[in-house]
Amino acid sequence: MRARDLALTATAVALAAGGVTLPLAGTATAAESATVRKDDFNGDGYGDLAIGAPGANSVTVTYGSAAGVGTSRATTVTQSTAKVPGVTERGDEFGESVTSGDVNSDGYADLIVGAPGEKTAGRPEGTVTIVWGGRNGFTKGGRTLTAPANSERRFGEAAVFIDLDGDDMANLAVISGNHWWFYPDGVPREGHAIGLETDFLPKGVRLDNMTAGRFMSRDGYTYVLTGERADGGAYTAYTKGGAGDYGYWSGVIAEGDDPSASRDPLAVGDLDGDGYDDLVTGNPRAAKGGAVSVRYGAETKFGKPVTYTQDSVGVPGNDEDGDRFGWSVATGDVTGDGRADVAVGAPGETSGDAGARGAGSVVVLKSGPRGLRDGRGLHQDTPGVPGTGETGDAFGSAVRLKDVNKDGRADLATGAGGEDIGSGRTAQRDAGAVWVLRGSSAGITLPRVTSFNGSDFGVRLPAGAGGPGKAFGEALR
C-alpha cells in the first residue's frame, strides 16, 4: 500500500526524555480514591485513552478533555521510562494488553500493562507492569509482576481490575496462555498470585482474552475467558464465585465451530438497560465474512446467543469472504440513552471507490428493546474521516467506545493496524494509526474527528514489527 501521512486535527507534541510529556494538573485526592474513574490517570475528571503498540513495546496515554483527545496532552510509557521497572527488548510485547484502575488507592487510575512476550532470566514467560498514575502523569514509577509458576507461558495476555469478592476492594486478575490468576486485596505483590481452586480449563488450551461483568447477578462478577482448544477450535468459557472457590462454578459458553464462540474478541455492557451486563463476542471466521453475538445477562445464567452478520437486518454491508466482521468488538453508550451500543471492526472489508481490499471498516450498532439496529458503517473513505482507504490498511483492527470529553456519550476510537506512515526512506510500513470520532444523541458524528499515529508521540516500530496485532493502536483502553 502507498505510504502517506495522516491528516491530523491536533498539534504534535514534543516528547520529553523517558517518554513523558507535559505535566497535567489534576484535582483528585486520596479520599476520592473509592470513586475515581478507572481511566482517569491524571485526576482531572476526564477519561483518558490508552493506546498499546506492542511491536514498539509502548503504551501512549492521550488525556481526555472538553475538546476530546489529541497529541498535545499525552504521555508515552515504555520499560525505558524513568522509574518504570524492566528493560525494553524486542519481542517483549509491552502493550499487548492494557487495562487500568486505582491499584494503590491514591485517587488516580493506574496503568496495567501486559507484556506476554517478556523473558526474564530464571522466570517463565510474560509479565504485568503496574505504572502509577498521578497529577503530573506517569512520574512515580511502578512495579512488575512475573508469571507465578514455571509452567506459565505468555503471562499478561489480558488482565482486569474489579472487586471479585464483594468487599469493595478491587483485585487484579490476569491470564496467561494457559491459566487464570488473581491477587488478594491491596497492591499486588510478587509471589502472591492465587490460581483456580478447580482448574476447569481443558488441556492444551491457549487463552487470548478475558473480561468480567455482572452477567448473572447484579452484585457479583463473572469472568469470561476466550481462546483456542488444543485442536484449534474456538473456546469461550466462564467462571464465577468468590475468593478461594473460583473454578467450582464454571462452564463452556460456546466452542468449536459454534458461530457464537470467540477466540479473542469480547466486550461487556448493559445493552438493554435491565441492570445486568450483557456479553458481546466476535467471531471473524463465522459465516462468510464473520459474525457478532450477544448474550443478554439474566439471574444465574446467560441468555441464548443472538448472532448478527452483515446480512442481518439493520447491519450495513454484505456478508463477504474475508471481511473479518467481528475481529474486534466494543460496547459503550454512544447516544446517552442509558443503553450500551456496540462497535464492530471488520478490518478485511473492501471499501472506497477504488475497491481497496482489506482497507477495513467499523460498524456501530445502536442497542434497543429489540436488539441491535440502525447500524452505520464508517471507513477512511467516509466523508469527514481523515485519510484514504488503501489495500491492507485494516481500519477496524481494534475498537473502543468510551467518553473522553465528559459529555455523557461514548466516543469511538478505532485502530488501523496496517496503516503506513510517512513516505520515502522514512516510511513506516504497517505502523498503525488511531482515529477518534465523537458520540452524540444521534450516534457517531463526523465533525471534529481526531487522527494520529505513533510518530506524533515519538513511537516508532522497528522494521518488520508492525501490522495488525503489533502496530500502534493494537490495544485501546
- Report the biggest beta sheet as strand number plus sense, adding barrel if it closes: 4 strands, antiparallel
* Overall radius of gyration: 20 Å
The termini sit apart by 28 Å
> Could you report the average pLDDT, rounded to the nearest whole number?
91
Query: pLDDT under 50 segments (min length 5)?
Result: 1-34
SSE inventory with pairings:
Layout: E1 49-53, E2 58-62, E3 74-77, E4 97-101, E5 110-115, E6 127-131, E7 142-146, E8 158-162, E9 171-175, E10 180-182, E11 194-195, E12 206-213, E13 222-228, E14 234-240, E15 249-256, E16 266-269, E17 278-283, E18 291-295, E19 297-298, E20 301-302, E21 306-308, E22 328-332, E23 341-346, E24 361-368, E25 371-378, E26 395-402, E27 411-416, E28 433-437, E29 450-453, E30 475-476
Structure overview:
The protein is mainly β. The chain has three domains: 35-195, Integrin alpha, N-terminal (Methylamine Dehydrogenase, Chain H, 7 Propeller); 210-263, no CATH class; 265-453, Methylamine Dehydrogenase, Chain H (7 Propeller), CATH 2.130.10. Helices cover 0% and strands 32% of the residues. The chain contains no helices and 30 strands. The chain has strands spanning 49-53, 58-62, 74-77, 97-101, 110-115, 127-131, 142-146, 158-162, 171-175, 180-182, 194-195, 206-213, 222-228, 234-240, 249-256, 266-269, 278-283, 291-295, 297-298, 301-302, 306-308, 328-332, 341-346, 361-368, 371-378, 395-402, 411-416, 433-437, 450-453, 475-476. The strands form eight sheets. Strands 3-2-1-30 form a four-stranded antiparallel β-sheet, with no helix packed on it. Mean pLDDT is 91; it is low at 1-34. InterPro entries: FG-GAP, Int_alpha_beta-p, Integrin_alpha_N. One of its GO terms (molecular function) is hydrolase activity. This is VCBS repeat-containing protein. Residues 80-100, 368-395 are annotated as: Disordered.
